[in-house]
Structure to design on (1255 residues):
C-alpha cells in the first residue's frame, strides 16, 4: 500500500505539470485583455505600456516557466514562512504571483476567500451526505414502498432542477418577499462563538445557499447509495446472515452497510473537488464572494495569473482526491490489493 | 433411451414452441422498461415536449421575434399564455423555439461525447498497448477543471467560429463540441471496464480461435455487448448536456441574444423574477421537466437492461 | 466500520477547523505590518467614542454597495471608476468638480485663475496654494512636496494609468511648503488637468517613497491602505470584495462634526440588480452605485418607497460610430484602412436617413428609463461652465420614417430586386454589420434599431462581442472596437472633464486609427476634416468661457452633420439611496459620487 501511494504521487507530479501547461496554453490563446476594463479615456499608449509591464507581451513559454517557478517553489516557501513564522532564505526578493487586476499576490486573495467557500459549500456537502445516506439506505431496504417511491421522486426532482433555478426562486421568495434572510453574504462578519446573535446572523446568511446545494447533493448521492445498497441486499451472504439468525440490525449495519459504503465513500471523495466547480454558479447567485466568484471575475477581467493559479489548484485538488479515493477504496475493501 | 423418432418429435416440438413464442432481447428489455412507471411517464413527457418544440411553432400564432413595444412585460393571459418580454415578444413562442435549440444541443452533444467515449473505451479495453496511454489521457481530462476551462474556451473560439460558420451554426458547433469533448470520460471508463470483462468471456475466446479478424471481432462481438451501459450513459448524458448548456447561457456565455435557448431566456429574465415571474418560470420548469424525463428514462433503461432484474 | 467512522470524523474536523479559522481570522489576513498604519488601531473602532472636537463619527455605519468592487485603492495603478470611487474616500485632489461641472477647491485654498494670479499671463504655468494646516490622517502635515512627489510617482512608472493627466507638463516645483507651481511645455488656456478630480489625487510622499518605478505594483500595503486627507481611513480591505473605513480623526472638517458616519463599508460583488434590490427592497444597504438595470425592473423597485434613484448626467453618450473606411473582408490587409472609402456610409443622405429612422424615445423607454437616459443628437450633450450643448441637430429626436425614406429615394438608393433592401446606384445592397459589446441593454437597443432600419430598406446583422474582447487592445483580434471590422459600432464614451477641450480632440485627423499602425489613436471612425482640425486648434487657444462654449457647439455640429457618428442616448450614472440618507444633493457625474460624503447624514 505504501509503495502504491508513493508511486501514484510520483506519477501525479508530471501529470500536474502537464495539466498546468495545458491550462496555460488555453489561457494564453484566450483573447481577453487586462486593460479592457479600464475606461476609454485612458489613451492607447498608456494601455500598451501597462500591458508591457504586466508581462502580457512576453513569450508564452517564458511566462509559463516563471509561473511554474513561482507556484511550485516561491509560494509554498512563503506559506511555510507564514505558518511557522520563520524566514527561509531571501524572502523579500522572492517574486510572487501577482494578480493583474489587484496587483496583490493571488495566493493571499485565495486564502482570504477559502473560509467563505468552505462555510457554504463545505456545509452543503456535509449536510448532503447526512441526508443522503440514511435516505438511500432506507429506500433500498424498503424497496418499492411508499417511502422509496416518494424518496426516489424527490431525489429525481432535486437532481434534475438546476441549482440556478432553485436558487433564484429561493432568493425571491425568502429574501425579497418574506424578508427572512439577507440576499448578500457578508464576508466581514466574524462569528463570535460566545454570542448567539452573531452565530444567528451567520446562520441566516448561509441558510439559503446551503439548503439549495444540500438538496442537490443529497439527491445525487441518495440515488447512488440506494443502488449500492440494493446490489448488496441481493447478495448471497445477506441470506446466509439472516438464516444464521442474526438480528436485522446486525445484518444491516455490520454486513450490508460496510460493503455498500465502499463505492459511496469513493464517490464522496471524488466529489470533493466538485465542490469548487459547483461553487462558481452558486456563488454567483447568492453573492458569496468566495473562490468561485473570484474565478469568474478573473476570467471576465482576463486576469491570467489568477485564473491560471485557481484552475491549477482545482486540478491539483482533483488529482489529490482521486488518490485519496483510490487509497480509501483500498483500505475499505480487503479484496483490493495495490501492489 | 429415446428412439430416433421420439427425439425428432421432441426437437420439432421444441422448435414449435420456439417459433410460437418468439422472444428477442429487445422485446424483453421493452417489457421490463414498461414496468418502470417513472420511465413511462418520462417517455410521455419527453414526447410532449419534443412535439411542442418542433411542431408547435408551426401552429402557434405568435412569432418569437416580432417586437411590440406597447405590450412589454405583460403577465400571462389567454392571448399570451406566458406573457411578453421587454420588447413585447411573446414568451411562449420564444420558449418553444428555444426548446428546439436546447434539445438539439442536448442530443448532439451527447452523441459526440458518447461516440468519443465509447470509441476510446473500446480501444483502451481491447488493445493492451493503448490502455495505459488512453487511461492517462482520461485521467488528464478528468483532472482538468471543466467549468473554468469551458468559460475560457468559449470566450476564445466564439468569434472565430462565428466568422467561419455564421452566427447560428458557429455557436452551436462550439457549444456542442465543448460539452461533448468534456463529457466522454465517464463513458470511456465504463466501456473500458466492460470490454475488459467481456474479453475474458468464452465466446470471445471461441471467436478468436476460429480466426475472426480484429475488426469483425470488435464490431460484431465486443461492441454490441457494451451497448447497455453505453445507452444508459447516453440517456443521462443528454440531461447533463442540457443542464450544462443552460448553466453556460445563464452565466452569459452560451448562445447570444438572438437565440432564445432556455438557459438564455433564464439569463435574460432573471432580473424580472419578481415582476414578471412567468418569464423565468416557463423556461426553468421546462428545463427541469426535460431533464427529469430523461433521467427517468435513463433509470428505466438501466433497470431494463440489467439482466439480473429482468430475470425476475 | 471503525475506519470509515475515523475517516468521516477527520473530514468533519478538518472542515470545522477551517470554518473556525473564518471566525477569528478576519482581521489578520490583510494587514501585514505597521508600515503605513494610522493611529486608529484594530478592525472597526467604536463609533460612539467621542472624537477630538465636534460630533464627527457619531452616525454609526453606512453601507455602500458597489457591485463592481475595487481591486485596490491606488487610483494611479488602476484607472477603473470602481477603484477611483473607493479611493476617493481617502485620497483627495487639489480641486474637484461639483455636480454642475464647476471647479471647487478641495486641498487647495482656492481655484487659480488669471484674475487671482494663479494662472500666468502667458498660460504656461499654474500655481496652486494649499490650505493652511492640512494634515494627513497619520498626523503629519501636507506639504507641496507631496504634490511634487505624486507627479514624479506617476510619470516615473510605466504602470501609472493616469499619466495622461500629466501630459504636457514640463515640471512641477514646490515654491514653498504650501505652494506648488506647474509649468507647461506650451500654453494651456485650460490648465485644470493635473491634480483635479478623483482621477489624480495627492499621495503622501513618505508612505509611497519606496514605491517608485517598478516597485509601484509590489507595494501592496500602500496600494491597499493609502494614507490620505479625506474623511475616512482604510481599516480593512479585501480585494474585489469589501473595504471598511473608519472616520479620519485628523480630517479638516472634524471641528464641524464632519463626517457624520463613523464607519463606511463598501460591499462588492453580485450584479447591478442585486445592488438595487439591497437598497430599494431589502434595506441591506444605504447606497447602490452604477445601477445598470432595465427600467422595467428598477422602476417598480423604486415605487416600493424605500429609497430614491438619482441620475448623474455628465457627458456619456451611447452612440453609433460610422465607419468612414471600407471594412470589406475582400480587401484583406486594406480592411478599414484610412485610405479606403465606405461604399455608402459617407453619403450624407445615408447617415442622415439612418439617424432619422431610429426611434430614440422607444430605446430610452425600454432600455434606460427617464432616470438613466435621455435621447440625444449630440456627442457633447451637457451645459457646463466652459462647454455647451448644441440645439442644432435636435430634429433627429423625433423618429421620421417618411423623411428617411424620402432622403434615400432622392439620393438614388432604390430597391431594384424587390427583396426589401435598397441598393446603392452601383448595385451594392445596403447591408450593415452592426457590432457592439455583449450587454443586455445594448442587445435590446440593437434589436430596436435593426427593426427601425428594416423599415427604410436597410438590412443589418447584429453582432455582439464579449466586452473584454471588444474593449481590449489585442491588435491581432478582428473584434476589437479599434479594429472596426464592421460598418457600425455602438458603445459609450464621455469626457473625463466638464471642459470639451481634450474630448473633442478624439476626432482630429492625427488621431485616425490605422490597423497598419497597430491601432494607436482614438479617432475610431477614421473621420478627417481639415476645417474640424482648424476649429479644434481654435478651441485649444480659446481663453474666454463663452468662446469655448461656442466652439464646443461648433465642433459638435461638425462631427454630427459630417457623419462621424450617430448619437442615441445621453446616459446617466444611476445610483440608489435609502430614504433616510440626507445631505447628498445632486449626484455628481463629473467627479466622485462620494465627493460630499462628509455632508451625508442619516435622519431619524
Amino acid at each position: 500500500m505504501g509503495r502504491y501511494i508513493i508511486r501514484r504521487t510520483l506519477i501525479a507530479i508530471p501529470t500536474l505539470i502537464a495539466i498546468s501547461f495545458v491550462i496555460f496554453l488555453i489561457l494564453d490563446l484566450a483573447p481577453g485583455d487586462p486593460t479592457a476594463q479600464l475606461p476609454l479615456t485612458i489613451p492607447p499608449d498608456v494601455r500598451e505600456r501597462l500591458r508591457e509591464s504586466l508581462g502580457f507581451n512576453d513569450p508564452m513559454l517564458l511566462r509559463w516557466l516563471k509561473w511554474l517557478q513561482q507556484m511550485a517553489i516561491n509560494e509554498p516557501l512563503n506559506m511555510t514562512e507564514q505558518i511557522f513564522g520563520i524566514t527561509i532564505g531571501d524572502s523579500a526578493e522572492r517574486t510572487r504571483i501577482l494578480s493583474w487586476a489587484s496587483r496583490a499576490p493571488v495566493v493571499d486573495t485565495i486564502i482570504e476567500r477559502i473560509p467563505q467557500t468552505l462555510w457554504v459549500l463545505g456545509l452543503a456537502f456535509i449536510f448532503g451526505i447526512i441526508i443522503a445516506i440514511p435516505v438511500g439506505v432506507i429506500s433500498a431496504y424498503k424497496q418499492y414502498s411508499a417511502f422509496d417511491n416518494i424518496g426516489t421522486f424527490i431525489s429525481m426532482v432535486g437532481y434534475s432542477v438546476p441549482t440556478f433555478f432553485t436558487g433564484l426562486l429561493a432568493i425571491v421568495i425568502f429574501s425579497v418577499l418574506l424578508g427572512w434572510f439577507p440576499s448578500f453574504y457578508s464576508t466581514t462578519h466574524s462569528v463570535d462563538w460566545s454570542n448567539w446573535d452573531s452565530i444567528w446572523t451567520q446562520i441566516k446568511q448561509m441558510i439559503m445557499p446551503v439548503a439549495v446545494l444540500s438538496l442537490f447533493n443529497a439527491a445525487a448521492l441518495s440515488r447512488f447509495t440506494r443502488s449500492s445498497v440494493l446490489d448488496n441486499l441481493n447478495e448471497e451472504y445477506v441470506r446466509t446472515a439472516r438464516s444464521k439468525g442474526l438480528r436485522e440490525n446486525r445484518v444491516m449495519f455490520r454486513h450490508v452497510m460496510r460493503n455498500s459504503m465502499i463505492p459511496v465513500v469513493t464517490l464522496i471523495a471524488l466529489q470533493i473537488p466538485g465542490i469548487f466547480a459547483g461553487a462558481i454558479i452558486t456563488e454567483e447567485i447568492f453573492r458569496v464572494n468566495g473562490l468561485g466568484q473570484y474565478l469568474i471575475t478573473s476570467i471576465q477581467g482576463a486576469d491570467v495569473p489568477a485564473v491560471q493559479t485557481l484552475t491549477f489548484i482545482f486540478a491539483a485538488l482533483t488529482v489529490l482526491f482521486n488518490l485519496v479515493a483510490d487509497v480509501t477504496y483500498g483500505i475499505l475493501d480487503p479484496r483490493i490489493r495495490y501492489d | 433411451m429415446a428412439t430416433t423418432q421420439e427425439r425428432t418429435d421432441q426437437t420439432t416440438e421444441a422448435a414449435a414452441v420456439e417459433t410460437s413464442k418468439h422472444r428477442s432481447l429487445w422485446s424483453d428489455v421493452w417489457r421490463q422498461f414498461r414496468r418502470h412507471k417513472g420511465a413511462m411517464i418520462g417517455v410521455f413527457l419527453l414526447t410532449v415536449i419534443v412535439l411542442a418544440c418542433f411542431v408547435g411553432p408551426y401552429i402557434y400564432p405568435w412569432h418569437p421575434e416580432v417586437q411590440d413595444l406597447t405590450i412589454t412585460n405583460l403577465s400571462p393571459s389567454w392571448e399570451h399564455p406566458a406573457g411578453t418580454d421587454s420588447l413585447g415578444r411573446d414568451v411562449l413562442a420564444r420558449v418553444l423555439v428555444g426548446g428546439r435549440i436546447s434539445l438539439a444541443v442536448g442530443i448532439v452533444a451527447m452523441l459526440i461525447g458518447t461516440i468519443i467515449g465509447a470509441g476510446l473505451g473500446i480501444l483502451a479495453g481491447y488493445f493492451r498497448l493503448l490502455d495505459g496511454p488512453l487511461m492517462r489521457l482520461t485521467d488528464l481530462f478528468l483532472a482538468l477543471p471543466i467549468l473554468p476551462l469551458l468559460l475560457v474556451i468559449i470566450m476564445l473560439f466564439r468569434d472565430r467560429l462565428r466568422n467561419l460558420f455564421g452566427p447560428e451554426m458557429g455557436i452551436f458547433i462550439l457549444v456542442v463540441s465543448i460539452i461533448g469533448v468534456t463529457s466522454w470520460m465517464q463513458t470511456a471508463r465504463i466501456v473500458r471496464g466492460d470490454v475488459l470483462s467481456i474479453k475474458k468471456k468464452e465466446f470471445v475466446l471461441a471467436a478468436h480461435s476460429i480466426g475472426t479478424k480484429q475488426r469483425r471481432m470488435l464490431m460484431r462481438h465486443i461492441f454490441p455487448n457494451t451497448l447497455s451501459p453505453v445507452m444508459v450513459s447516453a440517456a443521462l448524458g443528454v440531461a447533463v448536456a442540457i443542464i450544462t448548456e443552460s448553466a453556460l447561457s445563464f452565466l452569459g456565455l452560451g448562445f447570444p441574444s438572438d437565440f432564445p435557448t432556455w438557459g438564455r431566456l433564464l439569463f435574460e429574465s432573471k432580473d424580472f423574477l419578481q415582476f414578471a415571474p412567468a418569464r423565468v418560470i416557463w423556461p426553468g420548469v421546462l428545463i427541469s421537466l426535460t431533464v427529469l424525463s430523461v433521467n427517468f428514462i435513463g433509470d428505466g433503461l438501466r433497470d431494463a437492461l440489467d439482466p439480473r432484474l429482468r430475470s425476475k | 466500520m471503525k475506519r470509515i467512522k475515523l475517516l468521516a470524523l477527520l473530514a468533519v474536523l478538518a472542515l470545522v477547523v477551517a470554518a473556525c479559522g473564518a471566525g477569528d481570522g478576519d482581521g489578520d489576513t490583510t494587514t501585514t505590518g505597521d508600515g503605513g498604519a494610522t493611529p486608529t488601531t484594530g478592525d472597526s473602532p467604536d463609533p460612539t467614542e467621542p472624537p477630538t472636537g465636534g460630533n464627527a463619527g457619531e452616525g454609526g455605519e453606512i453601507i455602500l454597495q458597489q457591485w463592481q468592487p475595487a481591486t485596490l485603492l491606488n487610483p494611479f495603478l488602476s484607472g477603473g471608476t470602481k477603484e477611483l470611487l473607493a479611493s476617493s474616500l481617502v485620497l483627495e485632489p487639489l480641486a474637484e468638480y461639483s455636480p454642475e461641472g464647476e471647479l471647487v477647491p478641495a486641498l487647495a485654498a482656492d481655484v487659480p485663475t488669471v484674475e487671482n494670479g494663479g494662472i500666468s499671463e502667458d498660460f504656461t504655468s499654474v500655481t496652486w496654494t494649499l490650505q493652511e494646516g492640512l494634515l494627513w490622517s497619520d498626523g503629519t502635515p501636507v506639504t507641496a512636496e507631496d504634490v511634487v512627489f505624486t507627479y514624479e510617482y506617476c510619470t516615473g512608472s510605466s504602470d501609472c494609468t493616469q499619466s495622461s493627466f500629466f501630459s504636457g507638463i514640463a515640471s512641477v516645483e514646490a515654491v514653498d511648503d504650501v505652494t506648488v507651481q506647474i509649468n507647461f511645455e506650451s500654453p494651456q488656456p485650460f490648465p485644470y488637468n493635473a491634480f483635479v478630480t478623483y482621477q489624480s489625487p495627492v499621495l503622501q510622499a513618505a508612505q509611497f517613497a519606496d514605491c517608485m518605478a517598478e516597485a509601484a505594483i509590489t507595494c501592496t500595503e500602500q496600494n491597499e491602505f493609502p494614507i490620505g486627507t479625506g474623511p475616512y481611513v482604510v481599516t480593512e480591505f479585501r480585494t474585489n470584495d469589501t473595504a471598511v473605513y473608519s472616520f479620519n480623526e485628523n480630517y479638516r472638517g472634524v471641528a464641524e462634526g464632519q463626517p457624520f458616519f463613523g464607519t463606511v463599508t463598501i460591499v462588492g460583488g453580485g450584479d447591478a440588480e442585486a445592488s438595487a434590490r439591497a437598497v430599494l427592497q431589502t434595506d441591506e444597504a444605504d447606497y447602490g452605485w452604477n445601477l445598470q438595470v432595465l427600467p422595467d425592473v428598477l422602476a417598480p423597485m423604486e415605487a416600493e418607497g424605500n429609497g430614491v434613484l438619482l441620475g448623474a448626467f455628465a457627458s456619456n453618450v451611447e452612440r453609433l460610430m460610422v465607419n468612414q473606411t471600407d471594412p470589406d473582408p475582400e480587401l484583406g490587409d486594406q480592411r478599414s484602412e484610412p485610405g479606403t472609402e465606405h461604399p455608402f456610409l459617407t453619403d450624407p443622405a445615408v447617415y442622415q436617413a439612418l439617424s432619422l429612422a431610429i426611434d430614440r424615445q422607444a430605446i430610452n423607454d425600454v432600455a434606460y428609463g427617464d432616470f438613466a437616459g435621455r435621447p440625444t443628437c449630440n456627442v457633447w450633450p451637457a451645459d457646463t461652465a466652459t462647454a455647451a450643448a448644441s440645439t442644432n441637430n435636435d430634429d433627429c429626436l423625433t423618429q421620421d420614417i417618411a423623411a428617411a425614406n424620402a432622403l434615400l429615394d432622392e439620393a438614388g438608393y432604390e430597391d431594384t430586386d424587390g427583396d426589401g433592401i435598397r441598393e446603392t446606384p452601383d448595385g451594392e445592397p445596403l447591408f450593415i454589420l452592426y457590432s457592439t459589446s455583449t450587454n443586455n441593454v445594448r442587445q435590446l437597443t440593437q434589436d430596436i434599431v435593426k427593426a427601425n432600419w428594416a423599415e427604410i430598406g436597410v438590412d443589418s446583422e447584429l453582432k455582439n462581442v464579449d466586452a473584454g474582447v471588444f474593449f481590449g487592445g489585442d491588435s491581432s483580434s478582428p473584434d476589437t472596437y479599434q479594429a472596426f471590422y464592421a460598418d457600425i459600432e455602438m458603445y459609450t464614451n464621455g469626457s473625463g472633464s466638464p471642459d470639451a477641450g481634450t474630448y473633442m480632440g478624439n476626432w482630429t485627423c492625427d488621431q485616425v486609427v490605422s490597423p497598419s499602425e497597430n491601432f494607436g489613436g482614438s479617432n475610431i471612425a477614421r473621420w478627417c476634416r481639415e476645417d474640424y482640425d482648424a476649429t479644434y486648434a481654435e478651441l485649444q487657444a480659446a481663453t474666454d468661457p463663452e468662446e469655448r462654449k461656442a466652439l464646443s457647439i461648433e465642433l459638435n455640429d461638425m462631427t454630427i452633420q459630417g457623419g462621424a457618428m450617430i448619437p442615441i442616448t445621453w446616459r446617466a450614472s444611476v445610483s440608489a439611496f435609502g430614504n433616510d440618507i440626507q445631505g447628498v444633493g445632486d449626484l455628481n457625474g463629473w467627479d466622485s459620487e462620494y465627493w460630499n460624503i462628509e455632508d451625508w447624514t442619516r435622519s431619524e
Residues 4 and 165 of chain C are 65 Å apart (CA to CA). The first strand of chain C starts at residue 61 and ends at 66. The two ends of chain C are 62 Å apart (CA to CA).
